[in-house]
Prior knowledge:
single chain; alpha+beta; Glucose Oxidase, domain 1; 4-stranded antiparallel β-sheet; 23 helices; 12 strands
Amino acid sequence: MGSGTAWSRRIADELWSGVVTPLTFSLLAEEMTEHMVRRRLEQAGLHGPSRRPVFQLVRGHVYVNASLMAEVMAELPGLVLSDGVRALLPDELRSTLEQQRRGILDPRTLATVARLTWNERDWAPWSRAASFRTEAARVARELAGFHVDSRASGSEIAAEMEALRRRLGRFLEVVSWGMIYAYVFFHLLAHLQREWLPAERESVAGLLAGIPGIRTFEVHEELFLLAARVREDPQLRAAVLDGPASTVAQRIARGDFGDFGRDFRGVLERHGHRLVARDLAFPTWRERPSVLIEMVRRLAASGGEDAACRQARRNERLRRIDAELARGLGGFARRTAFRTVLRLCEQYYAVRENMRYHADYFLAALRGLALVAGDRLVAAGALADRDDVFYLRMDELARALEGSGASSVSVVAAARRSEYEADRGVAPPEVLWADEAALPELEAAARVASAPTDAAVLHGVAAAPGSIDGSVRVVRTVEELEAVLPGEVIVATATDPTWTSFLALASGLVLEVGGLLSHGAIIARELGIPAVVDVSGATSVLTTGERVRIDGGDGLVHRLGS
């Protein structure tokens, strides 16, 4: 066991994906700390933990204060402190939590509930999902038509970015409980299935594949239907499948392709705020519509299963489970309890996914402002490239826009950009140990990265059931993602919700980071492909073209050779 505070990349990877630029981290980390952690702890009466640091950016990867999370988990009743929740912690901290069995009627638990009820009236699970839906609709109304004024002064751009960050904080205030409940009810449902349905072999996650109302899969279904039209119309097929995707996108923007073009523009208008990856440095679909064209092309070539089939399969399983739960003494009570937990799990599973869809409204707006700021600094000779703006922190950017410190930002941005590119090829350790305020110690510890292995079997977390043999496609960039062929096994550091239609082409998924409620795991289960996540160094060990066998039930990746 290390000394000092444990910092975990596993916990962070449930919220952040891959390498993060300084501008993105500086805009988001403090708002997430304040609205998703600090205020929740204060309202629960945990004033000491609420003042502790939560996030650190180390070698481009975000780490979470796992010691703080363990301290908070120790305050939870045993009913919600499931094995799945404890599994988020490093082994050293999890072992100290195994004996935690505080009852739901424990005086300290009751006191915490009383404080929460007094301080935050709609914190309870039966009301928070509705609060999220109201807030999400408000965000869409406010930001769907966000426009960046390229004539704004530097100080006005900085002020607008700060205003957006504060508005994001209000959104995160509503999201925070939804994230907590997503983990609690998912793992509680899994526990009930193990206890009451021991013969039910399929993972509990299968009960959540096919539920309606998840925006990521609704967008995928829209693209799926567009692809079906391309597949069924020979003329449209020839026009859309031939030539560069960028050329097809340009023709659609000009009004070509009739009804298909109109409907494609509708998809872009509704969902164009989505970023192609989880960082401000990446373009939106609106900026790069060729990504959507490529998705439609691949879906047209490969076919696949529509949402109705997934929902029908889920409904059949629910009928079987209902009948099994109703048997014997206490059957009615078991079935009622299981249904109640399932209903809450469904609601917060959707919140878990939909919060990212609506967060993209903020990210798209912030990206637009950052690019205008980059253009302004390039014109002033302070930056060599507009994209260098993403390698500045927000405080540095604000000072540069106001004319203070502009002379030094070019050197700072260039150095950090070089570090960022190097960090993209490195997977630092899952857990680092250092004092809370000792970032240099964390940086030094992160240099001791796990060496690539030549092991015949790679181990990870079983995220989506099934077994498949396939050829590897290592994906580190959007361009590599667009090269994925039907039936390949995608191997990546992490996935993004916007990858869904590309993942529909894959026969399996292997990720270096993430857990059971990471986006890659959720998407894989929805699409019915086996997945193993938290496979350390997968993108370094495995190579494109290599054959592997994925066992999504046991969390193993077997290397079969070329």
